[in-house]
Amino acid sequence: CGRPIQRVLNIYDAKGISVTESVRNVSFLKQIDRALSSNYPELVSAILVINAPSFISGLYNNIVKRFLDPVTVAKVRIHSNIPDGLLAEFADVQQLPEEYGGVKNFLF
After folding, report:
1. Residue 60 burial (CB < 10 Å; 0-12/13-18/19+)?
2. CA dihedral defined by 14, 108, 83, 65, rounded to 10 degrees?
3. What is the pTM of this model?
4. In 43-52, which positions are buried (b, 16+ CB within 10 angstroms) versus exposed (e)?
5. Which has more pLDDT, 79 or 44?
6. Are the CB atoms for 101 and 85 separated by under 8 Å?
7. What would the pLDDT profile of 72-97 be if each residue is shown by its tens digit?
């Protein structure tokens, strides 16, 4: 049957995302935040945005952040690359794909 989910780690790889795509996703992110903070406030352990183009930080800090719950804001980290060991701080390397510093070989 499996184990119950105790914590959720959201990792978004923003490599190659355009400004237009980012703006379109703002309302989607607000909906996700509203659903999670209303129904599962302590479920999300972190929201990591990796390989983010520079405009992502500006968009987040100047627009998106104002619409999010302060608890959610504290969990968001935006990086222009994948800092060594970052993902391993939050997830077992056995569960991470090789391209993100893990050992799992996913086939899609």
Report:
1. buried
2. 30
3. 0.79
4. ebebbbbbeb
5. 79
6. yes
7. 889 889 999 999 889 989 888 888 88
